Structure formats: C-alpha cells, structure tokens
C-alpha cells in the first residue's frame, strides 16, 4: 500500500450516521429536546419467536464455519429463490457481521473501480477508499427518482474505457426513500459492458408497494446481493448479514472467505442459529404491519412538509425522505443541518454525506423517532393510518415536522 493510500485511509472520518446518533444522545443528556431524524435504526422489536431462538441457542459457543452456518445459508438461498426466482446456492452465500462488512470485504477483494450514483449510502465511498478502489460519481435528479438513467450509466462506463468496474445499486434507497424504476434498463447496460453489480437489498422487504424487485432478475450472472436482519427484522445490533455471489464470480467469493478468516473469523454463533428462524419462519404479518406503519408515517411527513419552500419526493420504501430547502442563505448542506438542529432541535444529515456537492441544499430525514413496540401493538388495520393514530403513536415525529415546516416558511 502506498503512503498516499495509507494517508487517505487515516484521513477518513467516522460514519456520519453513527456520529449524528451519538451527538443527539449528548444533546439529550444536556436536557435539549432533540427530534432524532438522523439515524436509521429500525424502531420495531425483533419478532418474539426469533428472540426465543436466540435465547435457546445462547449456549452455543463453538466457532461456526467461516462461510457461515450451513442451515442459515440454505435458508437464505431458499428465501432469495422465492423472492427473485434466481438460484444462489448455499455454497455461494457467506454470512457476515452485518451487510456492511460484506460490502467492505468485497471492496478489499476487488481490484478495479467503483461507480456510485448520488445519493449513495455514506459508507460506500469510504469502503472503496479502504479497498484502494477509485470512485466515479453519477449525479441523479429528482425527476428520475434519484437513480441514474441507463444513458447516464452507459456514458460513465464508456468514459472509463473498459476498466474492471462495480456499479453499486441500493433500492429502496438510503437516503432518498425512493425505489429504482428502471432496473431492467440499467441491467441491460451492465450486461452489455459485462460490469459487476452490487445490489444492496437491505431495505427490499420494506418496499411500500410490497413488491420485492431485484436487479438480479435481469442480470443474475454478475449481480451480488447483500442483505441482513438489521432493517426488516429490527435486529441491527445482532450484526447478521449475508452476501450472495453468482457462479461466475466464485473467485471473488474465495477471496472474501479468506479475508473473513483473517478478520472476524466467524459471525457470532447464537445469532446465526436465531437467523435461521428469521429466514425460515413466516413473518408476513409482522412485515405487513411494520411496512404499513412506515408507509403511513412517511406519507404524513411528506404531506406536512412539502411546500414551495420544501421540495420532496413521496416515500416508497425504507424509512427515509430527502427534502430540499432551496435557498442562498447557507453555504453548504452541513451548515443548513447545523442551523436547523440549533434552532429547532431537528437532527438530520446533510446531502454532502451522500455524494452530492456541498451547495446542494438537500438533507436526509429519517422518520422513525417513535416507540415501535407500542405502535406495533396498537389496534390498527391494514389501511393507510389516519393522522390521529400517527399523532398518538409518533408524537415526536409530528412535533418535529411541525417545527421543521414552520422553520422552512421563513427561508
């Protein structure tokens, strides 16, 4: 590793999503009222049967295989086959401590360059830097739902002159909360130039239209899929993720396994046994109810925030929105977010953390500052929830959005 690359790694900052969470906790400890719209942690409890499975396997202390528990890999293989109709055999699946680690290992194992579209999750670019892979950005627009067009992707690939490339796609998207509506067209371009796609599907079970769509369905031969329990299952702290690798890229899988053996050795055993229950059990009712709550709260925020002072796309999945506050008052989205936090107590992340230029007045708003257990136990039906229910079970969201909306009127 060159000194320059080493310097780049040492100059990396802590993940902004984790930093905002800790900053909010400190402000709250000092007595400040904070609306925590900055950190994307599921508010819902882990389903009881999965918790029981963890308890029942707490005695497991043995090291499991580097690639992961056989039963778990088999259950994930079946889950992906059912969802995507694509066969990723258990031999092609590796269990990792969260999907974040899976992607980091791919960056380290991969020798090439990375294509990202703004907005992209905060860790993609730092991970590429750690893996010594150069990043190339595509700037997207609200009109295309914050995803690149096929024409943009092809233009970027052609400009890079046949380099070994990975294009990272995340749908539903963090930070925009939108879904990619041109997967087939993007897949056709990727296939034409034989590039690799990393499909980050950590939020796919939180798609509001209840349709799981994966780009692997159009380009299975060179599409990786990453996923895990953090978002749909509420088990972020358990750190159980997976990586599904197509047959044609089995060489990279071997490299990833080697890196795993020299870093974390194996994912913790009790959580792996519990994850078998998560992927084999029927949690459709739990998913349906949590998705309806997120969809309802997301729509409430959207309807109460959008105005001629706040531009925003409707929520389609996950638990994010990406409002824009067009103005010439602030020099950067970071300054904008700092001012909003100081003057209203609303904590959000600046768009510059997600690949946009600093002067783009966009922020990421995460609308899950509520007690997910109480909300989940409420007597609610499958329809879009009315405002009274949201006001009762998500008062912090309601109050915070009111403050943010009032603040924006003075821009």
Q: How many structurally independent domains? A: 2
Question: CATH H level of the largest domain: which superfamily?
Answer: Type I PLP-dependent aspartate aminotransferase-like (Major domain)
How far from one another are the termini?
Answer: 48 Å
CATH top level class name of the largest domain: Alpha Beta
**Helix-strand makeup class:** alpha/beta
List the helices and strands in order.
HHEHHEHEHEHEHEEEHHHEHEEEHHH
H/I helix tally: 15
Low-confidence stretches: none
Estimate the global geometry from the Cα principal axes.
globular
User: Judging by the overall fold, what is the CATH architecture of the largest domain?
Assistant: 3-Layer(aba) Sandwich
Q: What can you see in these coordinates?
A:
The chain has 15 helices and twelve strands. By secondary structure, it is α/β, with parallel strands linked by helices. It has two domains: 3-45 and 284-408, Aspartate Aminotransferase, domain 1; 49-280, 3-Layer(aba) Sandwich (Aspartate Aminotransferase, domain 2), CATH 3.40.640. Helix 5 (99-109) packs across helix 6 (124-130), helix 5 (99-109) packs across helix 9 (250-261) and helix 7 packs parallel to helix 8. The chain is globular and about 55 Å long. It starts with a helix and ends with a helix.
Quickly list its features.
single chain, alpha/beta, Aspartate Aminotransferase, domain 1, Aspartate Aminotransferase, domain 2, 15 helices
